[in-house]
Amino acid sequence: MKITLKLFASLTDYLPSASKYTNIVELDIAAESTIAQLVSLYRLPEKQVHLVLVNGSYIDPGQRASRTLAEGDVLAIWPPIAGG
After folding, report:
1. Does domain 2-78 have CATH number 3.40.109.10?
2. Rg, the chain, Cα only
């Protein structure tokens, strides 16, 4: 099944080289894959996975291990952002 993964800010370092400037990669993943499984697969540091949206809807940290993805979903992940 195909989904779109978008990583932002410092997390773009975990994307394939060809996707670093667009921050988007199209993935073919197993059915019933969870957000937590994709985070692990891409070796994203859990402390850097702060804001997670699926199709624009916020996914609470407690739901990420059980929230499965569906065909055509867009998974977007941001690290914590600091600024002043």
Report:
1. no
2. 12
